[in-house]
């Protein structure tokens, strides 16, 4: 039987795109508490079925797929520019294909305005009206409003007209950055991308006994199973170690590990991998906002996903990419980089975060020559002996202290004009590839 949480989620999924949702309305129509309704709406927002906009409310939107994550909805534009919706709220869920800056005469502007677009323009009523009639939404900059007739037109054609206090070019930069951020996020693999769904997951009920674990083990060959209650909520994990020396009729509830580690669909694969390595476990239950089991991930699938991600061409450059691109190996085992403006703090000296990124990259490169496989930096001790200034050329001399089957220890010294400016000690843990 479906839980109240599941019923609310299904109700939300079947609402018309653009429908406005409220906690009180959901609670009243489905006869649930407002707390239950609130939690389910938040879960629906995390899953991408609804979006909450300040001064507008929560609306049902079309769930985005990974293929169009770089596209923005008009609702997201409102959030980005801290805007106010003047009209056309019914079209906030729609996705914009491109945006045009209206810094030209209307006749010239007409060549670029098209359906599904967004016109970014100042206090120009005729341009607002033309864009809406052409199927494009409007973003008015400088805090200006528009005529009531234009607002009514926006409501009629279901295309939003938004006002923001920012200037035109600041707004364009903000939207550009948001799209670029999504290009980077597109390449980040989440648990939801690789999980084994509930329908294919092996699990045990709270009423099960040790004998049921043995039967399941013979059937699947696995040794670790989540334990769920009647509402499909995860209550524990039972492994081969847990059942040793217990009789066949012993209840699973007595031998299982209670309150196990779980992850959600939005957890990154890198984070899940770190938990699995740190805790020494082979699989993790995946739960929704109501702690209900929706699938599992295995250590083997996680490592395959991480290795595949490393082989994919990146669409967007992260700050780490920009920093490590400037790192060069000048001799065997000796590296060099020049401190650029992106690497500095507000005082113009090399930042701690940048230094950590560079040292981590160096450690990964030299240890990968000693032992094949992936690795995770487990500990880093960093000492700045002198401030490292902008445009300084830094020489890095790493030295491997010890390499075992599971760990590598590296000592690194940094020099500027042959004077020591920093020192670091790193410990990395190796991950065996399956």
From TrEMBL:
Gene3D superfamilies: CBS-domain, Hotdog Thioesterase, HprK N-terminal domain-like, Winged helix-like DNA-binding domain superfamily/Winged helix DNA-binding domain
PROSITE patterns named in the record: CBS
Domain of life: Bacteria
CDD domains: CBS_pair_DRTGG_assoc
Alphabetized UniProt keyword annotations: CBS domain
Sequence ranges assigned to domain CBS in this UniProt record: 195-254, 256-314
Protein's name according to its UniProt entry: Thioesterase
Organism: Pullulanibacillus camelliae
